[in-house]
Design goal:
The complex is a heterodimer of chains A (279) and B (121). Chain A is α/β, with parallel strands linked by helices and 279 residues long. Chain A contains eleven helices and ten strands. In chain B, 44% of the residues lie in helices and 21% in strands. Chain B is built from five helices and five strands; from the N terminus they run E-H-E-H-E-H-E-H-E-H. Chain B has a five-stranded parallel β-sheet with strand order 2-1-3-4-5, sandwiched between helices. The chains are: A alpha/beta (279), B alpha/beta (121). Chains A and B meet through helix 8 of A and helix 4, strand 5 and helix 5 of B.
Chain lengths: 279, 121
């Protein structure tokens, strides 16, 4: 495709989602957008770019943004954050919230649902300790397509083998032909909503825990700060934030500070920034 | 270095599994059926077993039953790796003492993911 068309699509994706595509992402564009081209009966990506310029009702724009922002995910991705949540954060929350008996979790950029469902399974496994508690897991993503998939709870044989222990597969999944569907008792624990992380999260309430993993890497510094600010605004004072392995708040936002001895986990920054600079 | 016994009647599968496991720093030995695997374990009890289900002479599940009765046979971590991908086979494997279960086709990512879940990595 022509450099001009490449830039046009990249600009559109950035404008609509904030996702930044560098110069060398031609292969990614090709592999993600050819199915969109086929759906709209267009020969190639140049034709897609031309059609996007005339896209009045935004239907194709939506498809292109969906295709570019859909990312692979795993159950219990990287294991450690989920172990840490189960062994460190959850016991603390059980103590702290014993009065109101409620835990609220936000899975921001939930992709195909593996992250919120992993958290739901951890809470289900906690069993009697959470009897009578109100659990809210809000899972959001920009892409309507992945949200629809996430809601269905259907996964391929490959997907259920990456990160998911077989004991949980047997316990919480049913075979549906070639695919595996997560049990309704787990699905009903998660509420899926379409949401752009660059918007202020209004109407979501306050969260004890936010998982926002492997999403900041796609954004420019200023947008990262904006997203972290939005998350900080809805986090309870005792709340924790989980980021992906290659992400950090350091040098990005002063709203958060790393939780000591817990890699990838962050707390709200209690220390005013000025005091840090002076001290 | 941890040892892993690869039990599969397909030479190609054994070769692919060996390559993946050696990259994960395992010392690998092979057996082409359940009986040869029993013999191998009697000689040298491995840390891990990657186990096919359907094989001539002795099946994977029969090998697992025999293994768990052997002296020291409760120690190896056993990961099934089979085309049997229905929930009844998986349940039977777990009930018999398998630690994890891989449904073929597999790739190095799945082996790595499963082996780290059961503490082998």
């Amino acid at each position: 495709m022509t450099p001009e068309n490449y830039r046009h699509i990249c600009d559109l994706v950035k404008r609509e989602s904030g996702l930044v595509l560098s110069e060398d992402k031609g292969y990614l564009l090709e592999s993600r957008l050819m199915p969109v081209a086929r759906k709209w009966q267009l020969a190639d990506l140049d034709a897609v770019a031309a059609a996007l310029r005339k896209d009045q009702n935004g239907g194709m724009t939506r498809d292109v943004v969906d295709a570019m922002t859909t990312n692979e995910s795993f159950f219990f991705r990287d294991n450690k954050p989920f172990d840490q949540f189960r062994d460190v954060v959850l016991p603390k929350l059980l103590e702290l919230s014993a009065g109101k008996r409620q835990i609220r979790i936000w899975s921001a950029a939930c992709s195909n649902g593996q992250e919120p469902y992993s958290l739901a399974m951890i809470l289900k496994e906690a069993g009697a300790k959470l009897a009578g508690w109100k659990i809210d897991i809000i899972a959001t993503d920009l892409s309507r397509e992945v949200l629809a998939r996430a809601k269905s709870g259907l996964y391929s044989q490959f997907e259920v083998q990456r990160g998911l222990p077989v004991t949980l597969l047997v316990k919480y999944f049913k075979q549906e032909g070639e695919r595996w569907q997560i049990d309704a008792s787990i699905r009903s624990m998660v509420q899926f909503k379409e949401f752009n992380l660059l918007q202020p999260p209004r109407g979501f309430g306050v969260f004890d825990v936010v998982f926002c993993r492997n999403v900041l890497i796609y954004f420019e510094a200023q947008m990262k700060a904006q997203i972290l600010g939005n998350v900080a605004d809805v986090l309870a004072p005792h709340g924790v934030l989980y980021l992906g392995g290659a992400e950090t708040v350091i040098g990005v936002s002063d709203r958060f500070a790393p939780m000591p001895n817990n890699r990838g986990v962050y707390e709200l920054n209690r220390q005013p920034v000025k005091a840090v600079a002076v001290g | 270095m941890k040892t892993c016994l690869v039990v599969d009647d397909s030479r190609v599968i054994r070769m692919v599994a060996r390559k993946i496991l050696e990259e994960l720093d395992f010392s690998v030995c092979e057996a082409a059926d359940g009986q040869k695997a029993v013999d191998s374990c009697q000689e040298n009890m491995p840390d891990a077993v990657l186990l096919d289900w359907n094989m001539p002479i002795m099946s994977g599940i029969d090998f697992l039953r025999a293994l768990r009765k052997m002296d020291g046979g409760d120690a190896p971590v056993v990961v099934f790796c089979t085309t049997e991908n229905d929930i009844n086979h998986i349940r039977e494997a777990i009930a018999t003492g398998a630690n994890e279960y891989i449904m073929k086709p597999f790739d190095s990512e799945i082996i790595q993911s499963k082996f780290s879940q059961v503490g082998l990595l």
